[in-house]
Design a protein that fits this description.
The chain has 8 helices and 9 strands. The chain is α+β, with helices and mostly antiparallel strands. The protein folds into 2 domains: 66 residues, Orthogonal Bundle (Arc Repressor Mutant, subunit A), CATH 1.10.10; 167 residues, Beta-Lactamase. The strands form 2 sheets. The protein has a 6-stranded antiparallel sheet, with helices on both faces. It comes from Nonomuraea polychroma. InterPro entries: GAF-like_dom_sf, HTH_MetabolicPath_Reg, Tscrpt_reg_IclR_C, Tscrpt_reg_IclR_N, WH-like_DNA-bd_sf, WH_DNA-bd_sf.
Length: 264
Amino acid sequence: MTHPESGVRSVKSAARTIELLELLASRQNRPARLRELSEALGAPRSSLYALIRTLVEHGWVRTDETGSLYSIGIRALLAGTTYLDTDPYLRIAQPHINDLSAKLDETIHFGRLDRTYIVYLATKESSRYVRPFSRVGRRLPAFSTAMGKSLLAERLGTPDEVPIPQPIVPLTPNTLVDKDELRRDLELTRERGYAIDNEENYAGLKCFGFALRYSSPATDAISCSVPIASMTDEREREIVEAMEKVRLAIERMAPIDLSAPGWV
């Protein structure tokens, strides 16, 4: 296969390795058998088994004591940690996220767009409620999250617009699954300047997302998650005002995006 943008042929074995690792990562804590992986990837068991054994030997895939169940290995964690440790934007955003969470006593997230998903790179939890798991490293559909919608709205009507996938699998009864309704919501987000996730991703939570415009198009965003039970109009205004101030502070401190229009 040749990529039209570069004219460079892709390496099939490398592509298959990446597909396998992403599949295992997407299963989170659910190990998979060789048959399941073979069927999901459409690959012969014999060649896939040889690939898996190589990845097990190098720590990218782990197996149970029977050698029949496979899951993501510790080397993936080490690579992901390096990504977080060396990211210049996360380094700038993290102190602001911590301060904002302390000020509002709400949960603040920092995430990055990955195709049609939002990847959580940092989270500072509220002291009033703690999730039983960490959001960092998790990937959720961009069209159902405040951070994702804030970034997708920035791309409307541009060459970078992300097509709305069909069908959209609802995560809650409030998830917007109608294509026209979702587009109207993104248009409203662009006019308003921030996105609202009204229990669309997680029941009982309302979330406000703000795109960080230090790159063009914006790829990063921050959000604030608030329990519906504690939300009032006054509280919403307080949160939006505080989030807007933090967005501007992060954007002012961010490195210049040399890929933006006007830079050579």
